[in-house]
tripeptidyl-peptidase II
Amino acid sequence: MRPSSLFTIVLAAVLVSADRLTFRGCQDKVKESLVSPPRGWVQHAPAPQDQIIRLKIALAQPSFGELEEHLLASSDPAHERYGMHLSKEDAHTLMAPSQDSIDIVSEWLSEHGIGEEYLHRSAAKDWITIHVPVSLAEDMFNTQFHVYKHVESGDTFIRTTQYSLPSVLHDHVDLVQPTTMYARFKPMSNTLHFMGGITQEFEFSAVTGSITGPAGNAINATCNYEITLDCLRELYNVGSYTPSGTSGNKLGITGYLDEYANFEDFQNFMKLENPAAVGSNFSVIAINGGQNNQTLSAAGLEANLDVQFAFGMTHPTPGTFYTTGGAPPYTPDKMEPTNTNEPYLDWLDYIMNQTDIPQTISTSYGDNEQTVPPSYADRVCKGFAALGSRGISILFSSGDGGVGDNDEDPSTTNCTANNGTDATTFLPSFPASCPYVTSVGATVNVPEVAANFSGGGFSNYFARPSYQDSVVKGYLSSIGSEYAGLYNSTGRAYPDVSAQGVNYVIMYRGAPTNVSGTSCSSPAFASLVSMLNDARLQANMSTLGFLNPLLYSRGVAALNDITEGSNPGCGTKGFKATKGWDPVTGLGTPNFGKLKDLVLGNSTQ
Ligand SMILES: *[C@@H]1O[C@H](CO)[C@@H](O)[C@H](O)[C@H]1NC(C)=O
Ligand SMILES: *[C@@H]1O[C@H](CO)[C@@H](O)[C@H](O)[C@H]1NC(C)=O
Ligand SMILES: *[C@@H]1O[C@H](CO)[C@@H](O)[C@H](O)[C@H]1NC(C)=O
Ligand SMILES: *[C@@H]1O[C@H](CO)[C@@H](O)[C@H](O)[C@H]1NC(C)=O
Ligand SMILES: *[C@@H]1O[C@H](CO)[C@@H](O)[C@H](O)[C@H]1NC(C)=O
Ligand SMILES: *[C@@H]1O[C@H](CO)[C@@H](O)[C@H](O)[C@H]1NC(C)=O
Ligand SMILES: *[C@@H]1O[C@H](CO)[C@@H](O)[C@H](O)[C@H]1NC(C)=O
Ligand SMILES: *[C@@H]1O[C@H](CO)[C@@H](O)[C@H](O)[C@H]1NC(C)=O
Ligand SMILES: *[C@@H]1O[C@H](CO)[C@@H](O)[C@H](O)[C@H]1NC(C)=O
Ligand SMILES: *[C@@H]1O[C@H](CO)[C@@H](O)[C@H](O)[C@H]1NC(C)=O
C-alpha cells in the first residue's frame, strides 16, 4: 500500500472512532481470548494509538470439506483419483467464502471507514488484509493492544490477549490475526546440538574406508559423523540418478526472519561438494518486503543450509528461495505497518495466487503449537492442504527440542501448559503437527539412530488422521501408560519420516561450518521428493502432491525403519524409537531407489 493511502485511512479512522458504532445493532462478543500471554512474554508498554498495524481477517470457508475430500482421494495411491490434482481455479472455488460473508464483512469494514480501496483480498477472497491505526483496531475489536516483550530474546510486538467481533459476524469470520498470536517461528538449525556430532559409541580412529549404509551399499566411513551431498546420495541410495532440469520440475525453499541465502557461499559450497553445479544459481522471490542482503556477514545459517543442500542435491532442477518479510523487533515507525512476524499467511497469500508453483517445498521454521491460537493453526494448515490439493508436496522440519520445546537452552525449558493450569506437558511443534504436511525428524550416525533432539509427539489441536491410525495405535499400545497425561494420545502424531540431521557441512560466511537440526533433515528429504517428482514428470505422470497417504501405505517398504534412540525433554527420557512408526523418527529414512520404483509403478510389491 502506498504511503498516501495509509495517510487517508488514518484520517478516516480518526473521524470514525470518535463516534462508536454498533454493527446492525449487535452486541460485541469475545471471539478469541487467552488466559494470559504465553510464558516468557510480558506486557511492556501501551501500544501507541496512531501506530499502524496490519491485520488479516479470515472469512469462513463453507466448501473446504470438499477440498479436503479431494485432497485425500488424490493422494491415496489406492484411490482411482490418485494424482488427479486440482487446478488453481478449482482450489480457489473450494476455498472461497460465501457471498453473504463477503458482503456482511464489507459492510462492517466500511462502517469503520475501511472501503474496498483500503483493503487487500487474497486471490480466493478468503483473507482480507487491512492496515489500521491501533486506535481504530481497538474500537473495531473492542480490545486494548499493548507492546509485549519476549523476556529472553528482547523481541517485542503489538498484541492483545482477547478480541471481540459483533455477534452477527462470528459465523462469517474465522479469526483476526496477529492479535492473540505470540509465536516466533524460529529456524530449526543450530550449530550447537551434538557438539562435534560424536556419540558415545563412536571412535574417531575407526574412521577409514567404508561402512555399510541402510540400503546395504558400502558408503564412505566419514558419513558416520559428517554429512555431505555425497553422503546423502550414498546413504539414501540415490545411485546415479540426475534430474533432467527440463521436466518442468522445481524445488522451493522458504526463508523468514531476515535469513538470506548467500550467492557467494552457494558457489563455494558447490566447489566443495558438487563441482558439477558450480556456476548454477537459484532464483529469489521477495514477499511482503522480504530483503535479500548479499553482504557475506548477513548470510543466514538456516537459509544457506537449506539452499545449499536442497539445490545441491537436485542440480540442475531450478530452485526458488522465498524471502518473506515481517520479523521482530517491532520498530515504532508510525507510518509503516509494524513488522508482525506472522510469516505463513503472507507466504500462503502469495503462493496461492501463483499458477506455476515448485512441486516440492521445504520449510525449517516452527514454534510450539501452544504459541499459536487453534483457529490460526487450523487456517494455516488448511492453506497447506490447499497446496497439497494442487499437487504440491509440503515438508516441514519436526523441531529440535525432542518432546520439549525448541529453546536453545534445554535447562530453561519448563514444559508448562499455557491454559492456566500450569500442568507439565510435552510441547508439540507447529506446523509440524498439521496433518496436511510431511513432518521430518532427524537421525545421526551409521547405522542410523534417532538424533536425541528430534522433535516428535502428538498434537493438541489436530486429531489423528486416518492415514496414520493403525501404526500410531500400534505404537501407543506398545508404550502402555508411560507418559500418560503428558501427551494427547488422540492427536495427530509426528514426525512422518526422518533423515540425517547432524553435522551437515555447509559454507557459511566464507568458511565450512557444521550445522545440525531437523532443519537439515527437511531439505534433505525434500530434495529426494523433488527428484521423485522429476522422475514422475519425465514419465508424463502427475506430481506426488500430499505425500503422507502414500508414505504410510506402500511407502513403508521403501523407507529404512529406525529402531534405536529417543528424544528426551521435559525432564523425561522422551519417546523411544521402535520397530515401525515412532514419534522420534516416524516411518524412517528414505531409500530413493525403492521410492522411485514405487512412484513409477515398477515396484514388485
Ligand atoms: C494475483 O496475481 C495477478 C497476476 O500476477 C495479480 O495481477 C493479482 O493482483 C494478484 N492477486 C492477488 C489477490 O494478489
Ligand atoms: C565437523 O565435525 C566433524 C566431527 O566432529 C569434525 O571432524 C569436522 O572438522 C567439523 N567440520 C567443520 C567444518 O567444523
Ligand atoms: C544428546 O546427545 C548429545 C551427544 O551424545 C549429548 O551431548 C546431549 O547431552 C544429549 N542431549 C540430551 C538432552 O540428552
Ligand atoms: C570420503 O570422504 C573423504 C573426506 O570427506 C573424501 O576425501 C573422500 O573423497 C570420500 N570418498 C568417497 C569415496 O566419497
Ligand atoms: C545468481 O543470481 C544472482 C541474482 O540474480 C546474481 O547476483 C549472481 O551473480 C548469480 N550467480 C551466478 C554464479 O550466476
Ligand atoms: C546488509 O547486512 C550488513 C551486515 O549485516 C549490514 O551492515 C547492512 O546494513 C545490510 N544492508 C542493508 C541494505 O540492509
Ligand atoms: C522455568 O522455571 C524456572 C524455575 O521456576 C524459572 O526460573 C524460569 O524462568 C522458567 N523459564 C521459562 C522459560 O519460563
Ligand atoms: C491444560 O493442558 C494440559 C496439558 O495439555 C491438559 O492436560 C489439561 O487437560 C488442560 N486443561 C484445560 C482446562 O484445558
Ligand atoms: C487432544 O486432542 C484432541 C484432538 O484429537 C483435542 O480435541 C483435545 O482438545 C486435545 N486435548 C487437550 C487437553 O489439548
Ligand atoms: C511424454 O509425452 C510427450 C508428449 O506427449 C512424448 O513425446 C513423450 O514420449 C512421453 N514420454 C513418455 C516417457 O511417455
